[in-house]
Each structure stands twice: as C-alpha cells, then as structure tokens.
C-alpha cells in the first residue's frame, strides 16, 4: 500500500465506480454503498456500471425528456448503450434519524417512489430493462418487469439475480451452494433493516426487537448447519410471491416456527420461555433479508462487524457496560498475541468484542502461515477455518458476564463466527469462585483461578458502582483491597491497620486478572487514566502492587474520542498490558531489595480515525487537502478472484501504527520474565 500522489479537497470522496473524485453528498454516500454491494454480493463488475447514464423517458402528455440513472447496469462486457441496459438503480439520501422510530416501508407505502423507478424501467418498448432497485440506504425495493400482451407489468421482489442472471437467491429453497456470501456494508444494512422493522413496524422496544431478530438469526445459522450436515434443502426461505400474499406469509411462519422449536431443543441457551412473537409480515420481511446469505460461507470478519454494529446500538448498559471500540480491542489483541494452544478469558465480556477479535487474530495467523493472508477464502477453506475456530472456541475461548442478556448475546456472536455457541458463563467474576449465578460451577471446572494464558477485559468502572460485599473484598485483602495511606513523615505509601469497606470494580479487576492467569500469563486491561496517574495514596499503592507482581509490557493512552462516539463516555483511558511474574521472580526481587529495571513500551494515541461525533477523520496535507492512498482490493466473487487497485481517503488512526511500533520494539527488547 502506498500513498497516492493526488489529494482530495473538502466535500469530495472517491467514486468506487470510476475511481475518481466526486462531490460528497448524502445521496452520493448511498450510491457508493449500493455500488460496492452490487460488486461484492451480486458479482456485477464496476466496468458494467455507469453513473448518471442519460435515459430518454416518456412524461405525461407524451413528451420525451432525458433523465439520468443514478446507476445503470449493462449486460456483462457489453457496450454501454440503451440496447444493453439491463438494470437501473435509483438512489436517494438516507433519511435523517431523529427521536422518532425508524420504520421500514412496505411496497404499498412507497408507491410514489416506485412510480419513479417504473418510469425509468420503461414500458414494453424497452423489454431489455428487466430489473430495478430503489433505495435510500434503509428502504430497498426491487422490481422485476415482465412484458406481456397487456404491456409492461411490474412485480415486487425481495431481491434480484446475480450478475449472470442466476436464480434469485432470496426466493428459492435450495442448498447452501445457491446462496451468496455477505459483504460488510450490505450485511450490516440487512441486520439493521431487520431490527428496524421489528422496532419500528411492530412497535417493540429496541432491546426486545434485538432479541426477536436474534431468534431468527439463530434459526438461519441452525438451518445452514443442519442442511450441510444432512445434505437436505434449506428451510429458511421465501418463494418470490410468498412475502406479498397472506397465504405465502403463513407458510413462511410455519417453516420458521418449526425451525425455532428445533433450535430450542438443540441449544441449551434457549428455554421454553423463548418465543417468536412477530407478525407474519415481520417474519416474511426478516426471512427475505436473511435467506439469500450463506452466513456460514461469509467471511468471519464480515459477520463480526455486522453483529458488533447491531449489538453496539442496542445493548449499551447503564452499569458501567461501555463496550470497547474495535480499534482499542484490536490493539490489545495484537500486543498480547494469543496463540492457538492458549486459553483466553474475558471475565466482563459484554457482547464479546475481545473474543471475536481473538478469533479474527487466529484466523489471520493461519492465513499468513498458509500464504493466503491477502486472498479471500474459497468456501472450502472458509469452512475448514470455521471448523478449526469452533474447536478452539470449545477448548480455549471463554467469557463471563454478570448480565445474562450479554452472556446470551456473546454466545450468539460466537455461534455466528464459529458455528457453535462457545463457553460464556453467567456469573460475578469478582466474586468467583463464589456466587449463586448459574455459570459458576461450570466455570470453576473449565477456568479455575491460575489456569488462563491470556486475560483481556474492559472491566466496568466508576465510583457509582463500588464493590462493598465483604465476602468479595476478602479475596483481595492481600493485594489491592488494603487501606493505602501516605506516611506523614517519609511521604511513602504504607498500609493502615483498618479494613477497606469499598473499592471500584476496576481496582479489584486488576488483582483478579493476576489471580486468574498462570505464571507468565499475559493480561490486557482498559483502565481509566486516574488509576495509573492519580497522586493519591490508594492509586499509588495499587500501582506499586502491579509493579511488584507483574512485568509491564505496554501502556498506551487513548484519546477521549475512543469511547465518546461509540459509548457516549467522556473519559480518558489507557490500554495496560502486563505479564504475571513467577513466584521465583518475585522472591528474587524481594531478596535484592529492588525491582528489576527493564524497557517498557509506552505510547500516546492522538487520533483514532474519528472525531467526537463518530465522523471519520482523514490525514491531511499542510494545505488542508485530504491525503489519498492506493490499495489493492482482492475479492472473490463466485469462483473468480479479482484484484482491483482502488484509491481511498487515508484514515488518521494512530492505533494500527502503535501496534506495528510495539512489534518493532519487541524485536529489539524481548518480553521480560518467563519466556513463552
């Protein structure tokens, strides 16, 4: 990858169709998203698309006037002319989201917009234009034109064919081979549309809508798994006309409920109380969105991104559950570098961001070893990698959370990525191995204290959620749960002879992490800056305890933008990476009367690729113009691998650069302590 010689002015973006600058508008954003999806999901080449193609249409009164097609799609490898025009796309700006519930419109409610699409698709005089799409980024309306003796007839569809006009994958019951692999932007939109339909059109609260959608998502994954194992047809599908008739919607419902009954009998994370309460219209809509995708054959990174976006907007809690932005997660995983034989634990896993990133990290390692790091997996390789990830998740990947809904959300996330729900326990990780919650006994068998290789977490923090239970605090009395005070004579931090009655959870999680890992085990924590920099005796005492018991691998300060856009938390944080000292190492330092000197990697991130509102931040030249970079995009569409040079805006994000700098640092300064 290298920076391009050109740059981009304010208010411009790089058009994915022409690879040249165009004006950045809300409508243009939708056009770029659609064009990328047409290539990645339908296999329609950019060379067969044209933006603003002029088309003469009949208007009222019989006059002809010229309109521009937002995206015109021609027959493959054909001249861009009217006779070869096969599909048309109308793009509109995405509606602004306010406080009102976002509703997904039906075909009937979109009649006026569809009249515009029908006008562009033309009458029986232009039979070559068979398919049309109208979208504003949220609503997607597909039409198919049939020319009969009665003229042009327009039929609503929930999808359209692949580039080679192969069968509508949404519409047919078949095998996994007939489905398509998802592209990140399109799959995220499909997930969001499903959720918005349930939330907006069914009147359900956001969290209830989220779980109803996950029930259907689990049915989809179970259907693919059983279909592949038994070589039987898929059951989660919709024939072309079924979503648009009462009888068709009833048949879809019967198939879904049969599948969900099977799901509840197969997976322990469901109970008889779990019920699908959606209307026939909602079920038909969601099946129409999910059915075309081969989720088991979709890249693991793509599924992880789609799921993370959905849970990030629906499961933010009010008890310190501020979910970790992906950039910070990736940085920690890169530094700690978990291996396939190592056990990984996040004891405050939320929706499973660190667990997903661990799976992605392992997949990257495997592909680099195979020499395919820059190539997309074919279906066989993807399934082989997924099976390998499933074995890893079953044996080495663990999570836990106090919130039972987040436990279930993480297990579903693991299921989406590996095909198995993984091992995530409902328990209070600070009280472990005590506690009354359902996951304690199994966790004590699987991950007792002192058994974990890599511990990663963004624990809940805040003065309003202090831990006061004596039984819990008693487990930390020899470490951080001591009354640290400052000696008035020497100024040193000493321990007063009085019990601590309350501590913030992040303080206890520091010691808990050390208790949970093996000697030489690696630890990553996201902590508020105060605990590492406040001059008070309590925080200083905790820092001294860390240095006595751990080697410090890295300390990276994050800017406030890291959390404020994703979690609405205005706080400075640090990624702290540690390595547990062996008892021999601790004894040797105590005997010497001093701690060992060693180099520590430290960095301050100033940019994380977005501002406080979540808007992308790009690298700029001194004159203010955005810097462009050229990348090689490698994509697999069907059996074809395509490499396309593309120009894009360079994102201003220090975190990947810090991860690279850490690797260079370790090449010169090996990890202190016990070798891996």
What does this molecule look like?
The chain has 676 residues and is an alpha/beta fold. The protein has three domains: 12-166, Alpha-Beta Complex (tt1808, chain A); 187-296; 325-461 and 506-610 and 655-668, Vaccinia Virus protein VP39 (Rossmann fold). The chain contains 19 helices and 21 strands. A hairpin with a 6-residue loop joins strand 14 and strand 15. Helix 4 crosses helix 5 (246-266) and helix 8 runs parallel beside helix 19 (654-668). It is globular, with a radius of gyration of 28 Å. Residues 1-5 and 168-173 have low confidence and may be disordered.
Content of β-strand? 15-25%
Query: If you average the pLDDT, what whole number results?
Result: 87
> What's the helix count?
19
According to DSSP, the number of beta strands is 21
Q: Sum up the overall morphology in one term.
A: globular
The CATH topology assignment of the largest domain is Rossmann fold
Assign the CATH class of the largest domain: Alpha Beta
Tally of discrete structural domains:
3
Poorly predicted regions: 1-5, 168-173
Q: How far from one another are the termini?
A: 33 Å
How much helical structure, as a percent, in the residues?
25-40%
- Rg over C-alpha atoms, rounded to the nearest angstrom: 28 Å
Structural class: alpha/beta
Biggest beta-sheet profile: 8 strands, mixed
Summarize the structure.
By secondary structure, the protein is of the alpha/beta class. The protein has helices spanning 26-42, 111-121, 184-201, 206-230, 246-266, 280-290, 300-314, 326-336, 353-370, 379-396, 404-418, 440-446, 470-473, 505-516, 530-533, 537-549, 561-567, 583-592, 654-668, and strands spanning 2-8, 12-14, 21-23, 49-58, 64-74, 85-91, 131-135, 140-148, 151-157, 344-346, 397-401, 423-426, 452-457, 484-486, 493-495, 517-528, 550-558, 573-580, 601-604, 626-637, 640-649.
């Amino acid at each position: 990858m290298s920076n391009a010689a050109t740059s981009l002015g304010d208010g411009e973006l790089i058009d994915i169709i022409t690879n040249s600058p165009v004006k950045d508008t809300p409508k243009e954003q939708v056009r770029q998203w659609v064009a990328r999806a047409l290539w990645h999901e339908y296999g329609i080449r950019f060379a067969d698309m044209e933006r603003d193609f002029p088309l003469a249409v009949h208007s009222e009164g019989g006059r002809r006037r010229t309109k521009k097609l937002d995206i015109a799609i021609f027959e493959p490898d054909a001249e861009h002319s009217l006779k070869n025009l096969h599909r048309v796309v109308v793009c509109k700006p995405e509606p602004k989201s306010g406080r009102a519930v976002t509703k997904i419109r039906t075909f009937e409610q979109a009649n006026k917009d569809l009249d515009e699409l029908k006008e562009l698709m033309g009458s029986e005089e232009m039979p070559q234009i068979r398919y049309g799409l109208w979208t504003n980024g949220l609503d997607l309306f597909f039409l198919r034109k049939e020319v009969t003796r009665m003229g042009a007839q327009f039929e609503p569809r929930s999808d359209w064919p692949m580039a080679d006009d192969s069968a509508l994958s949404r519409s047919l019951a078949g095998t996994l081979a007939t489905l398509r692999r998802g592209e990140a932007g399109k799959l995220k939109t499909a997930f969001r549309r499903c959720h918005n339909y349930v939330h907006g059109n069914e009147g359900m609260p956001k969290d209830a809508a989220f779980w109803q959608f996950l029930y259907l998502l689990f049915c989809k994954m179970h259907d693919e798994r059983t279909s592949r194992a038994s070589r039987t047809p898929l059951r989660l599908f919709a024939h072309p006309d079924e979503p648009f008739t009462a009888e068709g919607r009833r048949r879809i419902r019967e198939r879904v409920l049969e599948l969900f009954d099977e799901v509840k009998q197969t997976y322990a994370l469901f109970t008889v109380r779990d019920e699908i309460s959606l209307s026939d219209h909602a079920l038909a809509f969601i099946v129409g969105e999910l059915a075309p995708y081969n989720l088991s054959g979709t890249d693991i990174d793509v599924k992880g991104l789609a799921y993370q976006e959905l849970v990030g907007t629906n499961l933010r809690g009010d008890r310190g559950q501020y979910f970790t932005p992906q950039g910070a997660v990736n940085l920690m995983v890169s530094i700690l570098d978990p291996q396939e034989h190592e056990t990984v634990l996040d004891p405050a896993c939320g929706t499973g961001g660190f667990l997903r990133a661990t799976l992605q990290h392992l997949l990257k390692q495997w592909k680099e070893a195979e020499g395919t790091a820059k190539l997309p997996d074919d279906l066989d390789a993807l399934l082989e990698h997924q099976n390998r990830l499933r074995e890893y998740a079953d044996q080495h990947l663990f999570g836990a959370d106090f919130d039972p809904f987040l436990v279930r959300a993480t297990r579903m996330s693991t299921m989406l990525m590996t095909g198995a729900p993984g091992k995530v326990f409902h328990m209070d990780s600070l009280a472990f191995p005590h506690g009354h919650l359902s996951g304690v006994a199994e966790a004590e068998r699987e991950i007792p204290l002192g058994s974990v290789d890599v511990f990663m977490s963004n624990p809940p923090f805040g003065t309003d959620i202090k831990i006061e239970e004596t039984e819990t605090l008693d487990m930390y009395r020899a470490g951080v749960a001591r009354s640290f005070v400052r000696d008035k004579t020497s100024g040193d931090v000493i321990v007063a002879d009085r019990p601590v009655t309350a501590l913030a959870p992040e303080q206890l999680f520091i010691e808990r992490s050390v208790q949970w890992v093996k000697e030489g085990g690696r630890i990553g924590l996201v902590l508020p800056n105060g605990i590492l920099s406040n001059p008070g005796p309590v925080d200083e005492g905790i820092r001294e305890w860390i240095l006595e018991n751990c080697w410090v691998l890295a300390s990276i300060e994050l800017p406030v933008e890291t959390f404020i856009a994703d979690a609405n938390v205005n706080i400075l944080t640090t990624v702290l990476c540690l390595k547990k000292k062996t008892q021999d190492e601790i004894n040797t330092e105590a005997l010497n009367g001093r701690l060992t000197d060693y180099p520590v990697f430290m960095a301050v991130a100033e940019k994380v690729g977005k501002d406080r509102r979540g808007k992308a931040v790009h690298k700029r030249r001194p004159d203010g113009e955005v810097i462009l970079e050229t990348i090689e995009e490698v994509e697999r569409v069907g059996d074809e691998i395509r490499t396309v040079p593309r120009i894009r805006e360079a994102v201003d994000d220090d975190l990947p650069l810090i991860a690279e700098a850490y690797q260079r640092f370790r090449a010169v300064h090996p990890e202190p302590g016990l070798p891996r």
